[in-house]
Every structure is written in C-alpha cells, then in structure tokens.
Design a protein that fits this description.
Number of strands: 33
Organism: Escallonia herrerae
Shape: globular
Subcellular location: Secreted, Extracellular space, Apoplast
InterPro entries: Cu-oxidase-like_N, Cu-oxidase_2nd, Cu-oxidase_C, Cu-oxidase_fam, Cu_oxidase_CS, Cu_oxidase_Cu_BS, Cupredoxin, CuRO_1_LCC
Helix content: under 10%
Keywords: Apoplast, Copper, Glycoprotein, Lignin degradation, Metal-binding, Oxidoreductase, Repeat, Secreted, Signal
Largest sheet: 6 strands, mixed
Strand content: 35-45%
Protein name: Laccase
C-alpha cells in the first residue's frame, strides 16, 4: 500500500488534471524551507537575539496560487520547541499540518524536522503564517499570499502593484520571559515597547527614525496593500494621511468594496485595501500610522507606529523644495461605536462566482461566554492578579489546559483517556447578567474539554462577551474553518428576538472576528472538515490564560470525508 503522501500527491495530480479541462488552470507544488535560527536585531537602540525563519525578520513571503500544494520543511536549530500555523488555510483533511502545539501536533524539538504539506482549496487572497507555541509568534511570522488561479482575475481592477503591510509588536525584553513571569506571578504581562510596520517601529519612537517603513508610490496608480495584523495582543486602527482606502477583501474572502479613511484590524485578521494615489505629484509626505483599540481595565502599549507614503517626484522638479508632512487622524483608543459601525460594513461579495454559502438551517446551537476570570493563588506564594489571585481567561468559564501530548493524535488513535474529555458545555453552566455588574466570584474551572460535532453538522455559535474584570473585545479565531458572521450586538444576546435580525444573505465570511466589547457575535459554519480544531482568542495573553477550546469534527461516511493517518515524520512529545 502506498504512503499517505504519495496518495495525496496522486489525488492532487488528478484534481489538477481534471481542473485543466474547463479553464486551463494548473496547479503546482511549491517547496519552502524554514531554518529556525537565532538572529541579532537592533530596534529602539536595543540589540537582542530573536528567533527567526531563515535569519529574516519579519519572515519570508509564502506565495502560492489557489489549488497549489504547499510543502514547507521546518528544521529547528534553536533551543526552543517550535510549531507553525498557516493561519486561515482551511486544511481540508490535512489537520496534521495545522500547527497549534499540543492540539494537532507535538512541537518540533531542537534538531528535529517536520514537513508541513497542504493544498490550498477554494481560497485566494492574503493570509499569514506564524509560530503557534507560547509567544514565539512575536518574531516568527510572515505573509501567506494566495494568488488567483492562472488566467483568473480579481473581481476589481488589477492593481499596479501589491505591497504586504505587516503590523507587529516589539519587546526589548524576550517575549518568552515576559509571559513566563506573568504566568508565575499571576499578573498581567509587561506590555510591548513598540508596534512595527514590516518589522520597523518608525519615527515616533525614540532612537527609531532610521527604522521607518517607506512606501514609494507613483501618481495616478492603484496599489493593493495586503494588511496583516501579526501583533500579539492589540487590535489596531490604521490610516494614511489625506488618502481614502477601498476595502476589497477580508481574511482571503472577497467582500463588497467600501471606502474608509480608517481600517480596524484585529490580531490574526488580514484586509486587502486599494490605495488610489493622487493624480499629480503632491510635493508632500504622508504618514501612515497605526495605534491600538482597547477598552479593557489592564495596561496596554498606547503608542503609535508610523511609516511614510512617499511620492516619487518627476525628474528635476521639486527636488529642493521643502515638503509638507501630513499626519492622519485616528479614532480615540476606546472608540467602540466606530468599531461596531466599521465591522457592520463588511458583506460577502456574494455573486454567482463567489457565493456566500451561509447555512440556512441549524443542527447544533451553542452559546459560549468569553472573558477573563481568576484562579486561586497556590499555597505559600504571593500572586499579583485580581485581589491576590492569578489572572485567567475562559470559554463558558472553563480555562482550557493544554495537554502534554497532541489532542489530534490522542483522538485519531482512540487514546482520549487522561488527555481530554468531550463534555464541554454547550451553554454557560451558571447563567448571569453577562454584560452587567459582574459577579463577586470570578473563579474559573480548569480542564481539557472539547465539543464533538458530527460530520457536516450545521453549527450556530453565539460568542457572548462578559464584563468580568473588564469588558473588552476578544478576536476569536477558529482553525480549519471560515465562519459567517450572521449577527452582532451589544449587551446580552436575546435568543428570542435577536435572530430575527440575522443576515443570512450576504454576511461576511472570516476566520477571525472580534467579539464586541460588552456584546455578542453570532456565527454559522458547516462542520465539513474532520479533525481536531482549536478555537481561541488571538490576543496571546488571553490564550495563555486559557481563553481557548477545541472542536472535534468526526469523520463522514465517504472515503473523502475521513481524516487520513498522520505523516511518518509527525513530531513526538
């Protein structure tokens, strides 16, 4: 019997060969190698050793076309365990390569190698890749750019040029030490020292003007900016002075285009925007800036990253004249009303070629609370969290404990005992006024509990934010799936009246979405991808505190509805 990889390759060839017939598309296998190595980097007059891919920060671009197979060989040359997630890739029947440590794989240990091998099916646009263990994604991240199939075009005018814009977060300290200290003391972690655009903090920070991203443009052209928020713990507002942006895509799904001066983007989200440059040379520089949106009670990095939009001037003109510098206006840090209005503008393109396949009927309904909480301080220690406890975070008041072996392996080989249980509650066990005055008892329970879903079940999930230890937005990311955002609102979800206002025609389809601060989000998806799929807040501090859980989607009855066996080089714990 042939190997699973050979079988997958044969299937892919057949799939590509068949797809040759109608539209002469063709697929290819794209090979990448990730050498995980240390790299000395200086920012803000501070030099430190970081973990990098191939000695680059941010990491290299992965580029593929819809339908291509992507093969990434990871070789770990550093002391830390690593694993990689291809954020937003559906991973249809390829869950072994999804990447979250202790969920779909054991991490890749020092000196070890693992080859990620997946096909990009029915997706095109901007995604990202990043490490998915502890806080290593602070420096291990990069763009994942999926071009349309050959001879297929964008549903908008082809841009003159495409530019990835990655937002990141920089600590002068080692982020691993930052989160380790926080988990030990129970306090909130030390905040970052700067935000970055393509790894550069820009001129608004001390000792940083030389490290500024510059976007050189020509007048009268359309540029597509592939915005990626790879920051660790912060949603960001972004704007370019004196320029309007047209949003055309979100999380690698085309949307009905709309214009805006300000973009909000949560960690894990991607947004493609069209920038139409001025028809003439303006004899000015324009700052492009990003700063956080935050409504919680804790501390946060309240600083601003800036890059410069610079027009290439015509020969022999303006070369010696002084240029004006224009700065954009960003909303206030806690502009929740702006955020709600902005997110409601996103609608799926929903045409014949790119339909919005929203589940119209629902087989399984869930209500999950998402928010902060606390754990008791261990005996004979002092803790710096709320009222002498330790900060925690939870879904339905369960703070998810990562197992010491991978869930997917345990599930696949029928060895769940002692690793996980499948009794995750479908609704809050102790209902309360979620967005009102919080209860006195903020303690969470801890465990490794999952939800089991039958194959092809149609799921409606309402994510309800809580006000416990402060109401704030939580960008929830679901692995292995896109979901449709059919409703959102403030206050407590009303299961009697709110569904009447659901959009079941053209809701936006995403893989990451902010649960509104003091509000709720209603999602629908079809459980058509067997495996174990992580769902978590994309603020890494909240994930570390336990705001995470897992869905187990069972195999279907047909051979193409079952998860294949693991690859032979799957890392062991």
């Amino acid at each position: 019997m042939g190997s699973p990889v050979a079988a997958a390759a044969a299937f892919l060839f057949l799939f590509c060969a068949l797809s040759l017939l109608p539209n002469f598309a063709f697929c290819m296998t794209r090979h990448y190698k990730f050498n995980i190595v240390s790299l000395n980097v200086t920012r803000l007059c501070h030099t430190k050793s970081i973990i990098s891919v191939n000695g680059r920060f941010p990491g290299p671009r992965l580029i593929a076309r819809e339908g291509d197979r992507v093969v990434v060989k990871v070789v770990n040359h550093v002391a830390n365990n690593v694993s990689f997630h291809w954020h937003g890739v559906r991973q249809l029947r390829s869950g072994w390569f999804d990447g979250p440590a202790y969920i779909t794989q054991c991490p890749i240990q020092t000196g070890q190698t693992y080859t990620y091998n997946f096909t990009i099916t029915g997706q095109r646009g901007t995604l990202l890749w990043h490490a998915h263990i502890s806080w290593l994604r602070a420096t291990l991240y990069g763009p994942l750019i999926i071009l349309p199939k050959r001879n297929e075009s964008y549903p908008f005018k082809k841009p003159y040029k495409e530019v990835p814009i990655l937002f990141g977060e920089w600590w002068n300290a080692d982020p691993e030490a930052v989160i380790a200290q926080a988990l030990q003391t129970g306090a909130g972690p030390n905040v970052s020292d700067a935000y970055t655009i393509n790894g550069l903090p820009g001129p608004l920070y001390n000792c940083s003007s030389k490290d500024t991203f510059k976007l050189n443009v020509k007048p009268g052209k359309t540029y597509m900016l592939r915005l990626i928020n790879a920051a660790m713990n912060d949603e960001l507002f972004f704007s370019i002075a004196n320029h309007t942006l047209t949003i055309v895509e979100a999380d690698a799904v085309y949307i009905k285009p709309f214009k805006t001066d300000v973009v909000l983007i949560t960690p894990g989200q991607t947004t493609n925007v069209l920038l139409q440059t001025k028809p003439y040379y303006p004899n000015a520089y324009f700052l492009m800036t990003a700063r956080p949106y935050f409504t919680g009670l804790g501390t946060f990095d309240n600083s601003t990253v800036a890059g410069i939009l610079k027009y290439e001037h015509p020969p022999n003109q303006y070369s010696n004249t002084k240029k004006k510098l224009f700065k954009p206006t960003l909303p206030p840090v806690n502009a929740t009303a702006f955020v709600a209005n902005f997110t409601k503008k996103f609608r799926s393109l929903g045409n014949a070629k790119f339909p919005a396949k929203v589940p119209q009927k629902v087989d399984k309904r869930f209500l999950f609370t998402v928010g902060l909480g606390s754990n008791p301080c261990p005996n004979n220690t002092t803790c710096q969290g709320p009222n002498g406890s330790k900060f925690s975070a939870a879904v339905n008041n369960i703070s998810f404990a990562l197992p010491t072996t991978a869930l997917l392996q345990s599930y696949f080989f029928g060895k769940a005992s002692g690793v996980y249980t499948t009794d995750f509650p479908t609704n809050p066990l102790n209902p309360f006024n979620y967005t009102g005055t919080p209860p006195n008892n903020t303690m969470v329970s801890n465990g490794t509990r999952a939800v089991m879903l039958p194959f092809n079940a149609s799921v409606e999930l309402v994510l309800q934010g809580t006000s416990i230890l402060g109401a704030e937005s939580h960008p929830l990311h679901l692995h292995g799936y896109n979901f449709f955002i059919v409703g959102q609102g403030f206050g407590n979800y009303d299961s009697t009246n709110d569904p009447a206002n659901f959009n079941l025609v053209d809701p936006v389809e995403r893989n990451t979405a902010g649960v509104p601060s003091g509000g709720w989000l209603a999602l629908r998806f079809l459980a058509d991808n067997p495996g174990v799929w992580f769902m978590h807040c994309h603020f890494d501090v909240h994930t570390s505190w336990g705001l995470r859980m897992a869905w187990i989607v069972l195999d279907g009855s047909q051979p193409n509805q079952k998860l294949p066996p693991p690859p032979s080089d799957l890392p062991q714990c």
